Amino acid sequence: MKRYKRVSLVTYLYILPILVLIGIIFIYPLSQVLISSFYNIRLGAQEGIFVGLDNYRLIFSEPVFWKSVRSSLIWTFGNLILQLIIPLGVAILLNQKLRGMHFARTLILLPWIIPMVALAVSMRWMLLPGIGIFNEILKNIIGTQISFLGSKSAAMPTLIILNTWKWLPFGTLLILTALQTIPREVYEAARVDGANFWKQFIYITFPLLGKVIWFMGYLILVWNFNTFDTIWLTTEGGPGHIMQTLTILVYRRAFKVFRLGEGAAIATIGAALLMVMGILYFKFLSPKREDES
After folding, report:
1. What element of type H or E holds 7?
2. Helix (H, G, I), strand (E, B) or coil at 130
């Protein structure tokens, strides 16, 4: 027992620097945001006034907050669906033994290496009606143009597609790496038994990729819920409040109208909502262990 205690103490000492780093980077800022949410803080003021839950009462009574929650959920789950399905299909295609696949695997990295600022600003100009290249193509093909970023019905799908294209390399390479660990003999045996491509996908590919897809889905959920740069640099949360997610609302409330206490309260609510979604994701979508199946 003494030896066991010594080993445990040494183990904790090894991970102590990481725990301290996590505390400095994550726990301390989060605690400060939570504390600030109970104060009426104005940017430039010397100190805030304690108001208790008044910030939360005000936020919950605002229709713009609930619109932002709705936009956040649509944005998050829209990206989640596309960023799981499209990379899976592209990875399966790149895993085939066809001519030019090595070049295609290199080319798939292109969206990843383009800085988000450059991509967002350039796409904002390219999607403009009248002068944008995409609308010029539509005008020549179907004789009409679409306000991709200025229309309430088109802004959300347009940005979801743009964001999916940006993150396509991450999911594709992750799934492609997992695909290459599956022995070719398994597919050859399935073909001998008469299994077509669809049956091979259902009974071989998808089950063996389950843990990778589950892990990737969780990262996509967290990253997209906290997306700021793509939305702000292209639409600034518009048109109207269609693209005003919770992260955009936090920025506007804290750094546009300088009500830092309300911004901290919105950030706290967003963190709580993300935590709930994470718990539900782990509870209902976690892959079963082999000894539980």
Report:
1. helix 2-22
2. coil
| CB-CB contact of 248 with 235 (8 Å) | no
What domains can you pick out in the chain, each with its CATH number? Answer: 63-285 (1.10.3720.10)
Q: Are 278 and 218 in contact (CB under 8 A)?
A: yes
- 283 vs 89, 137, 164, 183, CA distance in Å? 27, 46, 26, 31
Q: Which two tokens stand for residue 236?
A: 């600034």
- The number of angstroms, rounded, from the C-alpha of 39 to the middle of its chain's C-alpha atoms is 30
**What span, in angstroms and rounded, lies between the C-alpha atoms of 155 and 157?**
6
CB proximity list for 46: less than 8 A, separation 6 or greater:
none
Contact criterion met (CB below 8 Å) for 175 and 261: no
pLDDT in tens, 248-286: 999 999 888 888 889 999 999 999 999 999 999 988 888
* Per-residue pLDDT reduced to its tens digit, 168-219: 998 999 999 999 888 888 888 888 888 888 888 888 888 888 889 999 999 9
d(CA 86, CA 164): 8
Task: Count the neighbouring beta carbons within 10 Å of the beta carbon of residue 257.
Answer: 12
DSSP states along 88-128:
HHHHHHHTS--TTHHHHHHHTTHHHHS-HHHHHHHHHHHTS
Helix, strand, coil % over all residues of the chain, rounded to 5: 70, 0, 25
Quick check: helix, strand or coil at residue 49? strand
Radius of gyration of the chain, Cα coordinates, nearest whole angstrom: 24
Given a contact cutoff of 8 angstroms between Cβ atoms, the answer to whether 214 and 287 are in contact is: yes
Give the Å distances, CA to CA, from 91 to 34, 147, 263: 42, 32, 40
Predicted TM-score (pTM) of the model is 0.87
Rounded CA-CA distance 43/112 in Å is: 36
